[in-house]
Amino acid sequence: MKFFGIGWNHCFFRRGIMDVFVDHFGQFLGRTSERLAIRQKGKVISEIPFFQIGQIFVIGEGISLSSDLVQECAQRGISIYFLSASGTPLAQIFSPNHLGTVRTKREQLLAIYDWRGLEISLQFIEGKIRNQISTLKYCRSSFNCFFQQGWKSGLGRRKNFPKITPGTCKVIF
Question: Does 42 fall in a domain?
Fold first, then answer.
């Protein structure tokens, strides 16, 4: 857990992405170039690059934010959550353009029950077969001498394969 900022402002890291929590009365959230700027009484107290932000939580009353920040967050897929001081959810701002992942997951789950699931399964199987054919062709060309010598010496017949006796690790020919 890494804290970022001064006073009540803090962020939690998860897999390289921060969750930003702002809960101090009188603070202002704005956009400065490619960064989220948190100001208190006109003075910048924290700046966080947008590419490191996953979500923004505004907790409590008296915290304001700019429309430029909302627009930038919407373009980058960063959700903004408004919570009461007790933690009750009040509102959420999110981009309608980033709902594709939810729709994609829903359609993937529904594909199990119709022709799409069968079609993608057949494509996986076809890819697996093609890869196996390519691997066998590579092995045949790379180890051609070994296989020719092995088959000529009679190792290709099942009865001539080495046998391992139970209880010992000795190979008996």
Answer: yes
pTM score of the predicted model: 0.52
- The domain of 30 spans 10-100
| Distance between CA atoms of residues 62 and 27, nearest Å | 7
In contact, 68 and 39? CB cutoff 8 Å: no
> What Å distances lie between residue 154 and 118, 144, 159, 161, 170, CA to CA?
44, 16, 9, 9, 21
Question: Beta-carbon neighbour count of residue 158 at 10 Å?
Answer: 6
Closest CA to 43 of 28, 32, 31, 64: 28
Number of domains in the chain: 1
Residue 9 in contact with residue 49, Cβ under 8 Å? no
Considering the domain boundaries, does residue 89 fall inside one?
A: yes
Domain of residue 68, CATH code: 3.100.10.20
Q: What does the pLDDT look like over 65-106, one tens digit per residue?
A: 999 999 999 888 889 999 998 889 999 998 877 666 667 777
